[in-house]
Structure formats: C-alpha cells, structure tokens
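User: Second chain of the day. Same drill as before.
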Amino acid sequence: MKQLETVYNRGFWDGYYLGQTLGEWTGQHGSLATQRKEYVGKVTNYFRKLKVAEIRMESGSLESGDVIYIQGPTTGSIELTIPEIRVDLKSVSKTVKGDQCSIPVGSFLRRADKIYKIINND
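Assistant: Same format as last time:
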C-alpha cells in the first residue's frame, strides 16, 4: 500500500465490493499521491566505460542525495539516488537550469532520455 500511495491516486476505499455507491470514496479533489516527479533535463551523452551520464539541465535543480527518475523509449524506467554531481569536471553539491552536469549511472542511457526529480508531497 505504501508503494501504491506514491503514484497518482484519489485515495483507497472498499468500493462497490462492500456495497458503497459512487462519491463516497474521497473528500479531496485531485491526486493523493505522496510523491510527484518534476522534469529537470535530458541526457546528452553517456560514457559507457566511466558509467557517467551527461545531462543538460533545462529546469529546476538537482542536489547530491536527490532521487531521480530516468525515462526513455528504449531505456525504460530507472530510479536512483544521485551520489555525486560534477559541473565542468568539478564536484558540486547542486546543479541548476542551464548547467551541463554529469552524474554516475550504472545503467546504459541514451541521448534524449528524460530526467525527472522525485519530490515528496509532505
């Protein structure tokens, strides 16, 4: 149930199984998801030997320790915690819109794979 709560949902209820009618399930409009994803950029290159992805930041920011979601038509879906960020080959704690940064990623990525930051809805 905890994992299901992280995606778009309107809350959980016993539903029609226990004889409830439509409209009794939620008192809130929209999603009750505990997490959301925010688009931050695209992969511009992947260095196989180093296992490092180069990312063009197109919005928002990323920090070491952030959880990201990578998605691409051939790559599929990958979720990971950022261990380190580099900008101009220097280790930084944060990268922002307009930066070209690199992060270590164990899985092979392709150019134009989209990068999303996972944000908790507290």
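The chain has a mean pLDDT of 86.

User: Great, on to the next one.
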